[in-house]
Structures are given as structure tokens and as C-alpha cells.
Amino acid sequence: METVFEFTLPKGYMDGAGELHRKGKMRLATAGDEISATRDPRVLSNPSFLTIVILSKVVTELEGVEMVSATLIEKLFTADLAFLQDMYQRINDIEPPTMEVVCPDCGKRFRVPLNFTQEG
């Protein structure tokens, strides 16, 4: 199973020297990443900061940058932030389990999502 994914930012992170950094790597998120991010003081005082904190945990590398931090993620252009948010969603998305069923009236086969929750 692939757990680390390479990317190229559409715009790139511009450092203090004016250099652009575009290539990087993102790993799959863990439950611990998401739990610890919700406990971060910056998130507690401003919930919209959650995305920044989580991305700073899962973006493991940005070519030519010593360390990826929340401060660095904050300085990304909005197009790059949107790109990373979309990538995070895609690589961490889990398809809901489905089951093939047959309509008793017409005999057509189709897939339906399985729901494991119990309703009263």
C-alpha cells in the first residue's frame, strides 16, 4: 500500500530569499494526526486553523526547505493551499463498502452502500 505521495504545487512556496519550492511529499494521515490537531491551541482559539495544522503534519517534505511547519503552510499561495487540501482529501478518502444487489422486479444488478449503523 502506498503511504507517501509526491506532488508539485501549482504556484510554489516562495521563501525569504525569493526562491520557489514546488515539489514535495505528503503521507497518509493517521488518527493521531487528526486528534492532536484538534487539541492544538491555535485550533482551539480559531477552528479554521485546523487545515493548516493537519497539513503541516502530513506534508513531510518540500524540496529545498529544511522543515515543513504550520507557519510555512500559512505562507502558501491560496491556490497551493487548495491543491494540498484537495490532495489530502483524495489520498485519505476511503470508499464506503458496497454490495452488489439484484432488483427482484427487473433483475437489474447494481451496487449499494453498506450501512453498519444501527437505527432505533
Explain what you see.
Helices cover about 35% and strands about 30% of the residues. The two termini are about 40 Å apart. The model has no long low-confidence stretch (mean pLDDT about 90). Strands 1-2-3 form a 3-stranded antiparallel β-sheet. A two-stranded antiparallel sheet has the order 4-5. The protein has one domain. By secondary structure, it is an alpha+beta fold.
- The whole-angstrom Rg is 19 Å
Described by the principal axes of the CA atoms, the overall outline is elongated
Order of helices and strands: EEHHHEHHEE
Our measurement of the CA-to-CA distance between the termini, rounded to an integer number of angstroms, reads: 38 Å
- Mean of all residue-level pLDDT scores: 90
| Continuous helix count | 5
Helix content: 25-40%
Strand content: 25-35%
Class computed from helices, strands and strand pairing: alpha+beta
Count the strands?
Answer: 5
Domains (count): 1
What spatial order of strands do you see in the largest sheet? 1-2-3
